[in-house]
Design brief:
CATH class of the largest domain: Alpha Beta
Mean pLDDT: 90
Number of strands: 5
Structural class: alpha+beta
Low-confidence stretches: none
CATH superfamily of the largest domain: Ribosomal protein S16
Helix content: 55-70%
Strand content: 15-25%
Shape: elongated
């Protein structure tokens, strides 16, 4: 039975997320599967991957073939690297302790780059928020200045109207006396 590691689509239209499953290659995409080993959500930034590392490694070692996308996911999570190192141990190129040390070093560098990316995205988001807030404040100040000018003009017009009426009343009072 040809076994594949592939994605099974879920979610709504335009907002898909995927289950990473082990399935017979002849089964439909969203049909029957042997085992679910994780999930992949490309909608977040960076994409969220939840993977059962040991199960994925087991299935790769037993001969399951990943599809292109799942190969990229497994590679980014380090499953393919671990498989490669374990094959080196089998061939006698180095021992298991050396393989674990190399994998830990690789994993640490990978995690640091992901952390750096997340921090950069957060900083960009914060800068964008500050810029939008400043632009909104500027617009509000401009509106407030315009409104103050209109109010000042209205008050000046009212004062002029009252001033025009007042001399007329005083002259009428003088004439009446």
């Amino acid at each position: 039975m040809p076994v594949k590691i592939r994605l099974q689509r879920h979610g709504r239209k335009g907002y898909a997320y995927y289950h990473i499953v082990i399935a017979d290659s002849r089964a439909p995409r969203d049909g029957k599967f042997i085992e679910r080993i994780g999930s992949y959500n490309p909608n977040t930034n960076p994409a969220t991957i939840d993977l059962k590392f040991e199960k994925a490694l087991y299935w790769l070692q037993t001969g399951a073939q990943p599809t292109d996308t799942t190969r990229n996911i497994l590679s980014s999570e380090g499953v393919l690297m671990k498989k490669h190192l374990l094959e080196g141990v089998k061939k006698g190129a180095f021992d298991a302790a050396e393989a674990d040390k190399r994998f830990a070093a690789w994993k640490a560098s990978k995690e640091s780059s992901i952390t750096k990316t997340k921090e950069q995205l957060a900083a960009e988001k914060q800068a964008d928020l500050k810029a939008r807030m400043k632009a909104e404040t500027d617009v509000n100040k401009a509106k407030a200045a315009e409104l103050a000018k209109k109010k000042a003009d209205a008050i000046a017009a009212t004062i002029e109207a009252v001033a025009e009426e007042t001399p007329a009343e005083t002259t009428e009072e003088v004439v009446a006396e």
